[in-house]
Design goal:
The structure is a homodimer. Chain A has a single domain, classed as Rossmann fold (3-Layer(aba) Sandwich), CATH 3.40.50.300. By secondary structure, chain A is an alpha/beta fold. Chain A is built from eight helices and seven strands, in the order αβαβαβαββααβαβα. A seven-stranded parallel sheet of chain A has the order 3-2-4-1-5-6-7, sandwiched between helices. The longest helix of chain A has 21 residues.
């Protein structure tokens, strides 16, 4: 068997960026603050979204797009809270793209949304190469993953606006060195905002909620 | 800009399988038992390899191929133990492939190796689609990732010979339900062997070492 070598990367990314710009225009038109949430599997994306819905739903109208390789486990948890949610199953794909998000937007009640969470596929490598039309990128890193992860997955840590450092309740039982982690992160991304949090105990979430309300408010003003 | 749609998947996977068969033939010729270790970021691949080297190095001649998007952090840890190690940096690629492993094999002292660990890139989605020439696939899942991961990343859990369930020392501080996890796993992969372990405390590792010595011995007999 012979191997065809075809360079598709530029075309794929270029087409994705065009589609992402269209998504962003649409979301801007409705004043919807959109956040692309990325992390490795099990770092706490869904827990964060659920905690945020419970805290802010009386003040902010929230909707969610859930991205997963398979299953609708997470979407069902969001749906149980009565929040509009669309599940995207990538059928083996390791990241969301702007085309998938475009389809999901067609099924959401855009005029009744202030804040849209897009929960990306759990993966520290590919998702950050594909813009979706988001205003902000929020990455969740969790203490059990270890403080060396910025060295091993630099693109993801370099290309995010906010890092939520989750599962700080486990610090007493781990060798995680928060100073080493912050040093590695700021070497890649000097301007990133880091919020240490625990979705389990609620520690640190007040600062996250405050940041989020501010960016939602700023978007409405535009 | 127009988008070319090109189906390259079959060619890529077909060529990879051919190359993987060549790698396997070569490793078979030298009687080297080869293990492809896969997990999400921070689940404990390197810790497992280091613990295993320390325990078995007097009885088994070990070598390691380290796969990472970037950095040689892990390879340096293995090298510090005086074990032959080759670092593969994928430069953004989210999995190893047989071609990368072929190149690494050219730089290893094959006649002096009984057991080769290939530490794949930390990712629960893409690595399992690319065979490398391995005898066994070992997946590490860790308790902090949550007991629902088999539903969300089914291909990886379905397509492994062994699952090491790591970080059991954290059980008292987590909501991880081991029965739910095992039920989900065996639904996808009825014949898989699960070893609950803690690389930190050493709990459960005796069973893993015993399994490993047996498969290395079996390979030598062939």
């Amino acid at each position: 068997m012979t191997v065809k070598v075809i360079t598709v990367g530029e075309d794929i990314l270029g087409a994705n960026e065009e589609k992402a710009r269209n998504n962003k225009s649409k979301l801007d038109k409705y004043g919807i603050l959109t956040i692309n949430i990325m992390s490795s599997p099990g770092a706490g994306k869904t827990s964060l979204i659920l905690s945020t819905i419970k805290k802010l739903r009386k003040k902010v109208r929230i909707a969610v797009i859930e991205g997963d390789v398979a299953s609708s486990v997470d979407a069902e948890k969001v749906n149980a809270l009565g929040i509009p949610v669309i599940q995207i199953n990538t059928a083996g794909g390791c990241h969301l793209d702007a085309n998938m998000v475009e389809k999901a937007l067609n099924d959401l009640p855009l005029k009744d949304i202030d804040l849209l969470f897009i929960e990306n596929v759990g993966n520290l490598i590919c998702p950050n190469a594909f813009v979706l039309g988001e205003d902000q990128r929020v990455m969740i890193a969790s203490l059990p993953e270890g403080d060396d992860k910025p060295y091993k997955y630099p693109a993801m840590f370099a290309d995010t606006d906010v890092i939520l450092l989750n599962k700080i309740d486990l610090q007493p039982y781990l060798d995680f060195n928060a100073d080493n982690f912050k040093k590695a992160v700021t070497g890649l991304n000097p301007d990133v905002t880091i919020f240490p949090i625990s979705c389990k105990t609620g520690a640190g979430l007040t600062a996250w909620f405050g940041w989020l309300e501010a960016v939602v408010r700023d978007k409405k003003k535009k």
